[in-house]
Design goal:
508 residues; mainly beta; Jelly Rolls; 5-stranded antiparallel beta sheet
Length: 508
């Protein structure tokens, strides 16, 4: 005889997890996701469809090829494309390099790789310095663009640049070259400049907690002190480093980067100078390996401060925009939760908080600069998003259950369209799988399972929308899948929770 009606509730949290067996994930983390693509864990709970992006300027950056670098300076966006520097306020691009107006006729940016920027102020005027990984640095003060050709050859080919203790530090191969204090064109030792050698090739520099962290391919060092008189280089790790340039970001009081075994945090303990290196991406190791293997042309990364989120993007010249891959890591109260990203084709990125708003830019080969966290589309195209729960056993995995009703709770900010699908018994081919149904904000579309009800309720102390539908199907385990309609541009929404009502049948 069948049992009475029972209810199983999901509270969606935990993010993407792929390192557990299906049964482990179903029992241990039922609110997590086995697929979480373009849905992100929200700091308010649930999984929120990611925001889109829009063009910063409807005009392409003049020139051809990949955009090599982006920075915001003097309330304008600057970009390097080809061998030239351009700027825009949002309505067309003006060439700065090789332009007599800026006393730079004949000055072009060398190389073809990434260009990195530093904003600094040593004399009351904020300036911009560029390194191209090939020649000597360039400087722009808002009026004059020039190459600092008088600097010594040691600095030629520098790829990384930071301001630490009012010295400009250049990362070049296995050397750190730094300027005299408050000087941008003086590297002489007599005036306070110098050179520091490290054991292997530098992959990034970051100033963190009053120290300069020097990441190399297979080592990490920190530089303490205030000047050449007391600078001290201390090794943190001699056998582990950052394997990918432009994956280093400070987030939530820590520094995240891509190491040889996944995403890592550089975490300081209470003891000064004692550091702990911790791998944080073990739960999604397969996705990290896939990102690395599919990104032969490098990586970029950014942070979204409002969400306490780190994003890493792989770059492959063979990818179209919609195939571009990335991973997001969101710091929540219970730890870090992950999700996959698609459709963000980012060769270079730039993020800045100006005290009022956050500006996040990215670009690749099509010549446009895009603004992240803008709108509900990928520059006009729908955002393809999928969330699939684990296969949950609903109690005893040896007991068959027949489902009769599902209720999905959402935070909705406008029109949306979803497909909901139930998959039984790990989607085995010998199991009967019901068809998908439509969930929409007007609840007007037909349902395959039965008549649907759309409405609002109070859930967890806040107003929620809910979608309730009669279901069909039976099995020993079940997964609920939510997918956006790729023909529709939807408003923001968050899937918070769901309930399944069922009766039990005989044991196997």
């Amino acid at each position: 005889m069948a049992d009475a009606w029972q209810t199983y509730s999901f509270e969606f949290k935990g993010g993407l997890i792929t390192n557990l067996s299906p049964y482990q994930q179903g029992f241990q983390a039922p609110g997590s996701a086995r697929i979480l693509r373009n849905f992100e864990p929200s700091i308010f709970g649930g999984y929120r469809r990611v925001e889109g992006y829009e063009k910063f300027d409807t005009n392409t950056v003049t020139n051809t090829g990949v955009i090599r670098g982006i920075v915001r300076y003097n309330n304008q966006v600057y970009a390097v494309r080809g061998n030239d520097l351009f700027r825009s306020s949002g309505s067309g691009w003006t060439q700065i390099s090789d332009n007599a107006t800026y006393n730079s006729a004949g000055v072009t940016i060398g190389g073809s790789g990434k260009v990195r920027f530093l904003k600094y102020d040593f004399d009351g005027t904020e300036k911009l310095m560029l390194v191209d990984g090939t020649g000597k640095p360039y400087r722009f003060d808002g009026t004059t663009f020039e190459q600092l050709s008088s600097l010594p050859s040691d600095v030629s080919g520098s790829k990384f640049i930071v301001n630490f203790k009012n010295h400009i530090f250049f990362g070049n191969g296995k050397k750190i070259i730094f300027s005299a204090p408050y000087k941008d064109n003086d590297l002489t030792i007599a005036n306070g400049g110098g050179i520091i050698n490290v054991t292997d090739t530098i992959t990034g520099l970051v100033v963190f907690r009053d120290q300069l962290i020097i990441f190399s391919e297979s080592s990490i060092n920190i530089l303490n002190g205030n000047s050449v008189a007391d600078f001290v280089l201390k090794p943190v790790s001699r056998d582990l480093g950052c394997v990918a340039e432009d994956t280093i970001q400070e987030i939530g009081g820590d520094v995240m980067f891509l190491g040889p075994d996944g995403l890592r945090l550089f975490s300081a303990t209470d003891k000064i100078g004692d550091f702990n290196l911790a791998t944080v991406s073990k739960t999604i190791q397969a996705e990290v390996l896939d990102l690395v293997s599919s990104s032969p042309n490098g990586f970029s990364s950014t942070i979204i401060r409002e969400k306490s989120q780190y994003r890493i993007f792989g770059y492959n010249t063979g990818f179209t925009n919609d195939a571009a891959k990335g991973i997001a890591a969101t710091q929540l109260e219970g730890g870090i939760s992950f999700n996959d990203l698609r459709g963000f084709n980012a060769f270079v990125t730039y993020s800045e908080y100006d005290g009022r708003s956050e500006n996040i830019y990215f670009a690749a080969t099509d010549g446009y600069i895009y603004v992240m966290e803008q709108g509900n589309s990928l520059d006009g195209a729908p955002i393809p998003a999928v969330f699939a729960t684990p296969f949950v056993p609903l109690g005893d995995p040896k007991v068959r259950k027949t489902l009769y009703k599902s209720t999905t709770y959402l935070d909705v900010n406008g029109e949306f369209n979803l497909r909901q699908t139930l998959k039984f018994d790990f989607d085995q081919p010998d199991s009967i799988q019901p068809s998908s149904i439509s969930i929409s904000s007007d609840a007007s579309e037909s349902t395959t399972y039965g008549a649907g009800t759309f409405g609002t309720s109070t859930f967890g102390g806040k107003q929620q929308s809910y979608y309730e539908v009669q279901t069909t199907g039976s099995g020993f385990t079940v997964s609920v899948i939510y997918e956006t309609d790729e023909s529709q541009v939807d408003s923001k929404f968050t899937i918070d929770a769901a309930t399944l009502q069922y009766i039990t049948n005989a044991r196997r």
